[in-house]
Amino acid sequence: MITPTLDLHPPDTGDLIFSDDFSDPSQWVLGQTASTSIALGNNALTLALDQPGGYLYTLRKSPTLVDFSLEVTAAPSLCRGEDEYGLLLRVSSAMEFYRFSLSCDGYVRLDKYLKGKASSPVPKTLSGAFPPGAPSSARLAVSAKGKEFQFYINDEYQFTVKDPSLLEGSLGFFIRSAGENALTVSFSNLVVRKVPLN
Fold first, then answer.
1. Among 33, 60, 61, 166, which residue's CB has the most CB atoms within a 10 Å radius?
2. Domain annotation covers residue 8
């Protein structure tokens, strides 16, 4: 029996839903405190925190996404060890979501937060598709169609997840500090497209 070859590249995508050069502050939840900052500048959205064990996120205000394919560049400038950054997907009004994480020591994972409980459909796994540490840069890609997600980093396939818990929601970014050090990550060149029907 011949096993078909797994397509390890992001799938062909359809018409543009929207692109974001991060120049419009009305589309994002921005803000600053003594130890955190979410700001736009130089065509990027930058999340920064100087807080041991801190967590910071922002959500795009529109649109609500159902089936989609997205790409975005993530560029940590201060990041080390188990510090994490990445995407929040299908975020509901009740703050239920999927979280695609890259860690600064080279691991990836997928977490789900649903009905007050956290789980990891894909536990921490060494990737090899992006450079650890900072400064660095990686192109993240996700295809979401119904209950199936496919995840890529720098055009390299990472994993597929089938989970029907959340079928629509908003999009966001996050960073999480695992230690005592400051953490800064910028996101740029966001493109979201329709998923082909076939």
1. 60
2. no
Residue 16's pLDDT is: 96
Domain-located, residue 4: no
Going by C-alpha positions, the residue among 139, 149, 136, 7 that lies closest to residue 90 is 149
Q: What pLDDT score does 14 carry?
A: 87
Cross-strand partners of 142: 70, 151
Averaged pLDDT, 82-100: 97
Q: Shortest CA distance to 177 belongs to which of 77, 89, 80?
A: 80
Q: How many CB atoms lie within 10 A of CB 75?
A: 19
Residue 61: which CATH number? 2.60.120.560
If one counts the domains in the chain, the total is 1
Greatest Cα-to-Cα distance within the chain, rounded to the nearest angstrom: 61
Give pLDDT tens digits for 107-149. 999 999 999 999 999 999 999 999 999 999 999 999 999 999 9
The whole domain housing 47 covers 16-193
Do the domain assignments include residue 156? Answer: yes
Closest CA relative to residue 130, chosen from 111, 149, 152, 110? 152
| Domain assignment present for 115 | yes
